Amino acid sequence: MKRCRNGEIWDFEAMATGREVILGLDGGTTSTVCICMPVISMSQPLPDPLPLLARAVAGCSNHNSVGEDAARETLEQVMADALSKSGSSRSAVRAVCLAVSGVNHPTDQQRILNWLRDIFPRHVRLYVHNDAVAALACGTMGQLHGCVLIAGTGTIAYGFTEDGRDARAAGAGPILGDWGSGYGIAAQALTAVIRAYDGRGPHTMLTSNILRTLDLSSPDELIGWTYADPSWARIAALVPEVVSCAEAGDEVANRILRDSVQELALSVKAVVQRLGLCGEDGTDSFPLVMVGGVLEANSRWDIGKEVIKYISKEYSGAFPIRPKVEPAVGAALLAWNSSMKESKKEAYIR
Amino acid sequence: MKRCRNGEIWDFEAMATGREVILGLDGGTTSTVCICMPVISMSQPLPDPLPLLARAVAGCSNHNSVGEDAARETLEQVMADALSKSGSSRSAVRAVCLAVSGVNHPTDQQRILNWLRDIFPRHVRLYVHNDAVAALACGTMGQLHGCVLIAGTGTIAYGFTEDGRDARAAGAGPILGDWGSGYGIAAQALTAVIRAYDGRGPHTMLTSNILRTLDLSSPDELIGWTYADPSWARIAALVPEVVSCAEAGDEVANRILRDSVQELALSVKAVVQRLGLCGEDGTDSFPLVMVGGVLEANSRWDIGKEVIKYISKEYSGAFPIRPKVEPAVGAALLAWNSSMKESKKEAYIR
Predict the structure, then answer these.
(1) Fold agreement between B7-141+325-349 and B182-321
(2) What DSSP element (H or E) covers A57?
(3) Residues of chain A neighbouring B130 (CB-CB closer than 8 A)
(4) CB A16 within 8 A of CB A86
(5) Could you tell me which Pfam families the record lists for this protein (chains A, B) (predicted)?
(6) A7-141+325-349 has which fold?
(7) How far apart are CA B177 and CA A17, in angstroms?
(8) pLDDT tens digits for A317-332?
(9) Closest residue by Cα to residue B164 from B144, B149, B148, B147
(10) Distance from A299 to chain B by nearest Cα, in Å?
(11) Long-range contacts of range A81-85, CB-CB < 8 Å, 24 or more positions apart?
(12) Could you tell me the pTM of the whole model?
């Protein structure tokens, strides 16, 4: 283990116990969560609730947003916080899984692995993934198998076969057509308001509802509102208005939500198809993990349930899961699972 | 006439002749053009070519982009340049028409009129419009009647009745669904490439064509390329690739262009309908001015021609015009026309 740049952040280790632990980290664009768990037996069923030693939270750790150095500093600090809170030290760590948004290429993965290697002792097993992988693992309790559909401000479908092949669909952002996302739904609703106003589209309840929510008096003020701040999350925050109009029977809002269901289902189907998760006859069982605000139940219009219906018609073996633990826990379980598999393989080779 | 802030920019006036002139200005987000014309007889036909005394060019004059002060300074300077080049002075100006992008509300119009009034002597007639109005006037040679369709990076349809009512459709930018625009066409093409790549859409020639143009090796690199620079014009610059794929028979590219034609035609129809430009039985004659890169002819796929076909089916009186003079000339003709009408009205009242 080399000396790390910010030596002082690890000073607490002098007081640490020797209990063996695992670290799981979920790093997104808004926040980063690190979980410290004791080493547990991975035999099913897992203890419920899972024993967690500590949870630490930090800001953005996406290197595309804050730059390489700031991202690394945030990641190192939040891991140190979690270990410090749990009274453990780096030498007590058995495995670490970092699931960070912005990790899209093997080169991103390798860069992060290189500096992680400098922080931890040699015996620690290290894993780096895209944050969608932690979302899958929090539904499958650490198994890297099946498909996860994430739909919040953005959307992505990500899947793994049991032999380690992966595939993704969507996740390319609003310009490149992630229409099923929260941003996509809200942008289509705003467009529908403009179209109704200038005579290109039917009247819709969305007009009064959205203008009231944004405290605007006329649809042409939406142009200024939209371009004053290009944040996708600010626009995606209008999804509840679309859902409530749809629930009140507005046809335009209903069409937008039905289209969103189709788009989201199409992303899942693309991943399932490419990986052959459903087997040759289309009936094999596989986990379908559903994560994110857009997929959560509303009083009547439940986008997640509609997506599942759509998928189940085609793939009878799709097994829908709404995770009960957070993605950082998924990352920790994945770290432990992967490390156990590697240990077994190494024992076999010896 | 009050002293203007930048007194020195008008120093040339001491040398000016007394010949009466008109100023027409077309101010956009990329550049601003000011034309100085001698006073001519507005009886038809107009002289061809039109007598122009001077043409001056400056940068952006959209107050939303550069701020109020910088916009005002640019506008004043480019008018001074045009007058100086033509050897005229402010007291020789009969009428000025400023057609500037970003003028959307009567309050924008009034603010600009207020400071214009400080620059010119009291007898000068002043007119302020949105830049789409200059585009209409350059097709109608100064008549404020009919509908203009502009489709470049963005798109807008704008129309006027002979008694001065106006209406617009689209022009709300890409987030708010201007899908027929150059940006809209190109963004849909990029989306089609991503969808083909991740298994959500059919194979398309657009993939190899666009990757070659952008010097990228894989569709997933498009994500980085797209978000590295959010300029709409940079994305809209891919329209020729879509047209060439469509001309080579690619079905995906053809569908994108057909959809664009529908969207553009829908904007025109909304304006024509709201203003009743086609008369009660739908057969009245009205000018339909077509402006912008997207509407220009290509070897086989002519988007502008297809839009005209579509509109003419519904409104047999639509009279398509592809302007031969630039919008600043349209603004000058409009200034002269409006000022003649006002003079007549005043003479009648006296």
Answers:
(1) yes
(2) strand A54-58
(3) none
(4) no
(5) BcrAD_BadFG (PF01869)
(6) Nucleotidyltransferase; domain 5 (3.30.420)
(7) 59
(8) 999 999 999 999 999 9
(9) B144
(10) 28
(11) A81/A34, A81/A54, A81/A56, A82/A23, A82/A34, A82/A35, A82/A36, A82/A54, A82/A55, A82/A56, A83/A12, A83/A13, A83/A16, A83/A21, A83/A23, A83/A36, A83/A54, A84/A12, A84/A54, A85/A36, A85/A53, A85/A54, A85/A55, A85/A56
(12) 0.88
Taking CA atoms, A169 is separated from A139, A217, A283, B181, B200, in Å, by: 19, 39, 21, 27, 7
Collect all residues with Cβ–Cβ distance below 8 Å to B110 and sequence separation of at least 6: none
Q: Pick from A262, A314, A320: which is nearest to A291 by CA?
A: A320
| pLDDT, tens only, A242-252 | 999 999 999 99
Assigned CATH topology for domain A182-321? Nucleotidyltransferase; domain 5 (3.30.420)
Query: What is the C-alpha to C-alpha distance for residues A54 and A76, in angstroms, rounded to an integer?
Result: 15
Please tell me which of the candidates B169, B187, B266 has its beta carbon nearest to residue A175: B187
Please give the pLDDT value at position B214: 97
Query: Which residues in chain A touch residue B172, judged by CB atoms under 8 angstroms apart?
Result: 191, 194, 222-223, 226
B73 contacts B66 by C-beta, under 8 angstroms? no
Nearest to B169 among A198, A223, A227 (CB): A198
pLDDT tens string B300-312: 899 999 999 999 9
**Residue A237, exposed/middle/buried by CB under 10 A (0-12, 13-18, 19+)?**
middle
Q: How does B77-115 read in b/e, with b if 16+ C-beta sit within 10 Å?
A: bbbbbbbbebbbbbebbbbbbbbbbbbbeeebbebbeee
Q: Which residues contact B298 (CB under 8 A, 6 or more apart)?
A: B240, B243, B247
DSSP A14: G
**Angle, CA of B279, B283 and B289, to the nearest 5°:** 85
Is A177's CB within 8 Å of B198's CB? no
Task: Determine phi and psi for A187, rounding to 5 degrees.
Answer: -65, -40
